[in-house]
Design goal:
The structure holds 2 protein chains of 2 kinds. Chain A has 4 helices and no strands. Chain A is mainly α. Chain A has one domain. Chain A is globular and about 35 Å long. By secondary structure, chain B is of the alpha/beta class. Helices cover 42% and strands 10% of the residues of chain B. In chain B, helix 8 packs parallel to helix 14. Chain B starts with 14 loop residues before the first helix and ends in a 15-residue tail after the last helix. The chains are: A mainly alpha, B alpha/beta.
């Protein structure tokens, strides 16, 4: 797997955090990434980065919702399994 | 889902046996197992992927149903179905390992501690110990499959969370889960009041270990606080304890659909996998909207992070369960607060490192 630079990683995490905590930004990032990022164009790499951010945020949301789903679960609090 | 409620062990603290769940002798047929996959595919068309988590009973005692599900899922869209299994790891043969690998199962392996601890409770119906067999299973699983493994230990009277945690960390597993036995207070194996206090202290220590992992940029192996910490990071209150009835369903060996496989089917039957999928999906939404938090939940400081408690466990454990959940929420807040000014570190809880 290609090793990403620390700057790339930091930028990616910044985007994930913002998309996770700012629902409006997340919607805009999905519908109009250029406007969301204040850019006039996006390279294929940049588009891929946006897709990755949105996919990661979706996974985090699922992890939150699934508190107990993963529970019977893989990481839930019920402790039944 | 439970493909059978039958088990090849007779663990002395078994929650399932204690609850009297399911009709003994009912095993899911391969045809019904394949129908389960189709029904979930149709009924949950609005979600991207479905995780089928096999539970029971011991799911490896019904390999024909397991094979039917893995094969059926194989003809669906790639990535549509994922598999997980909770197993005692006893009596698994070559076919079981082949299926685990074929489905790339996430494996939750029940192992309480060293032989003298594990074998005190986890024995076959005729009384034979099982610890050695579980370790052999783990070794074979690690060498013959690429399945990620979570070790799951039951903390009980005489065996603390700290001890269980240390034991699990000594094993070649990816994630750990050690939690208090779910039994009514006063039952054999239930923690004594002094042990409960120690358990709460051990939870705090688990939180400190999570903080140390995050400071080192590592995802913690004990991820019990992760979803709540991430919830705090995202903001917003939890609408319900879990996704039962909406994003999670339970399926019994006879194909009955429930909000969760552990809720009493007499109280919460949503439908059957042979019926129209829309019916049990709608019934699940109705079940969820009918759930109300207990009056005392509304004034509980943990409610936004708890969502009202597990509908399957609360009737068994009552106040004891609330005390543990409250402490989990408290520790999750402590972890979050530690990184409030540097939240990037918290993304490791979601695997972003």
């Amino acid at each position: 797997m290609e090793k990403k630079s620390p700057a790339y990683t930091k930028r990616q995490k910044d985007l994930i955090l913002r998309a996770l905590t700012d629902v409006e930004f997340r919607r805009l990032l999905a519908s109009d990434p250029l406007r969301a990022l204040g850019k006039s164009s996006l390279t294929p790499e940049g588009r891929k980065q946006v897709e990755l951010v949105l996919a990661t945020v979706k996974e985090v949301e699922a992890k939150i919702t699934n508190l107990a789903d993963q529970l019977l679960c893989l990481n839930g609090p019920c402790g039944i399994c | 889902m439970a493909t059978t409620w039958e088990c090849n062990l007779a663990c002395s603290y078994c929650f399932v046996r204690g609850q009297g769940l399911g009709a003994p002798g009912v095993r899911m047929t391969p045809g019904l197992a394949a129908r389960v996959v189709d029904a979930l595919d149709e009924g949950l068309a609005h979600v991207e992927s479905v995780c089928l988590h096999l539970y029971g009973g011991e799911p490896l005692t019904n390999l024909p149903a397991m094979r039917a599900m893995v094969e059926r899922a194989g003809i669906k869209r790639p990535g549509r179905f994922r598999f997980a299994i909770t197993t005692n790891g006893v009596a698994a043969g070559r076919e079981a390992f082949d299926l685990l690998e074929a489905g790339r199962f996430q494996v939750v392996l029940s192992i309480d501690g060293p032989a003298e601890v594990h074998d005190e409770c986890r024995r076959t119906p005729d009384g034979r110990p099982t610890h050695a067999a579980v370790l052999r299973f783990l070794e074979t699983l690690r060498t013959r499959t690429r399945c990620p493994v979570r070790g799951s230990a039951v903390v009980r009277s005489g065996w603390s969370l700290a001890q269980a945690d240390a034991y699990l960390r000594s094993l070649p597993i990816d994630l750990i889960k050690a939690q208090a036995v779910r039994l009514p207070p006063g039952s054999p194996y239930a923690l004594t009041p002094a042990e409960r206090l120690q358990y709460l202290a051990d939870l705090e220590e688990a939180g400190r270990r999570v903080i140390a992992d995050l400071e080192a940029g590592r995802p913690p192996r004990d991820d019990r606080f992760s979803s709540r910490v991430l919830q705090l990071l995202r903001g917003g209150a939890r609408a319900a304890f879990c996704g039962a009835g909406v994003t999670a369903f339970g399926i019994a060996p006879d194909g009955t659909v429930l909000p969760c496989v552990l809720v009493d089917p007499r109280r919460a039957r949503l439908g059957h996998v042979a019926g129209a999928p829309g019916e049990w999906v709608e019934a699940g939404l109705r079940w969820r909207s009918a759930q109300r938090p207990q009056p005392r939940c509304l004034s509980c400081s943990a409610f936004p992070l708890c969502g009202g408690g597990c509908p399957a466990v609360l009737p068994v454990c009552g106040d004891d369960e609330c005390e543990l959940v409250r402490k989990n929420c408290e520790v999750a807040r402590a972890v979050f607060e530690r990184f409030r000014a540097a939240p990037h570190a918290l993304l490791a809880l979601a695997g972003v490192v």
